[in-house]
Write a structure and sequence with these properties.
single chain, alpha+beta, two-stranded antiparallel sheet, 4 helices
Length: about 150
């Protein structure tokens, strides 16, 4: 075999280091942190048309997707800290989404694990107000999940 093969299977057994890595797309062989990207559509009074929020991901300030525009809010699906109580307290799509709004729209600090107490969602004004708006039908949330596969 000379040069680039017509079929990658011709390389099988010839690249021992590459074969040690295994399938890079096998989720059992790598850590995966799911992300939540939320399209926030603002419905305004007629005749204004609906709009949505975007932000630019500054490559100097983000670990992934730097230099692109993304919808607001977007973030990793993770607890607000490494504390054991937050694994249960924060596990919910809605809670994760609400935590991202003040970080991205109000400049509040990330919930990065530096706090010593769990978030009191029931007494958090923003969380409570958004929940009441959902219950009254003034705010809707719809979840759609997808998985990228090669």
């Amino acid at each position: 075999m000379d040069g680039i093969p017509d079929n990658p299977d011709q390389l099988r057994g010839r690249l021992p280091f590459r074969e040690l890595i295994g399938d890079p797309f096998d989720p059992a062989r790598r850590a995966i942190i799911p992300a939540i990207t939320t399209l926030t559509i603002r419905l305004r009074r007629h005749p204004a048309e609906p709009s949505f929020l975007l932000h630019w991901r500054d490559p100097a300030k983000v670990a992934t997707a730097g230099g692109v525009y993304d919808v607001i809010p977007a973030g990793e699906f993770q607890p607000s800290s490494v504390a054991l109580w937050d694994r249960r307290n924060d596990f919910g799509l809605w809670r994760n989404i609400v935590r991202e709004y003040p970080e991205e729209l109000l400049g509040e600090p990330e919930h990065d694990g530096t706090r010593t107490q769990p978030i009191d969602y029931d007494n958090w004004h923003l969380y409570r107000a958004l929940g009441e708006a959902r219950a009254a039908g003034k705010l809707g949330s719809f979840f759609w999940a997808s998985a990228w596969t090669p």
